[in-house]
Amino acid sequence: MIKVERDNKFERVSGTSVGGGTFWGLGKLLTKCKSFDELLELSHKGNNKVVDMLVGDIYGTDYSKIGLASTAIASSFGKAISQNKELNDYRPEDISRSLLRMISNNIAQIAYLNALRFGLKRIFFGGFFIRGHAYTMDTISEGVEFWSKGEAKALFLRHEGFLGALGALMNRDDLTTDLLSHRFTQQGTEDLFRSSTPFSVQ
User: Fold this and answer.
1) What's the pLDDT tens digit per position in 68-92?
2) In DSSP terms, which residues pair with 153 in a beta bridge?
């Protein structure tokens, strides 16, 4: 996780080992999917409520005293503890959905806590785990919205696959001094970001 103040002034302030690799690795072990895209596609058809323990499962309703809806996840994969089932008794679709929500929520919370630490309101997300996947972005956006009580905002890179290439291009002295190159990189950078928007994901 990198805190950016302005051009050429940034620092790495934190990080997490739980991300896209975790999603793919655990997903491969638990569902036998052969690729990251296959695992994502599988999650579209799943229902995490079959696997996750919700607030409503514990209290029977909302826990309004601390602002938790009955549909909030109390424990990812928590129902596997109380149910007399084996791995083969769960659908791979539900497992992948639960795994996706678990990692997305974790990333959102860690990112917000770092933003809070430095008094930041805008949090940009990018990387192999997201890749424009609507449900992932929706979950992260909801997480940031919840933990910050609406004070912070999640934003996502539109062309994140080119982020490294743009950075390398802008770092070349023989190109950044050229006016045409400067215009190209400036235009490309301005189009790189988009704000998170509500997704109608069920």
Assistant:
1) 899 999 999 999 998 889 999 999 9
2) 122
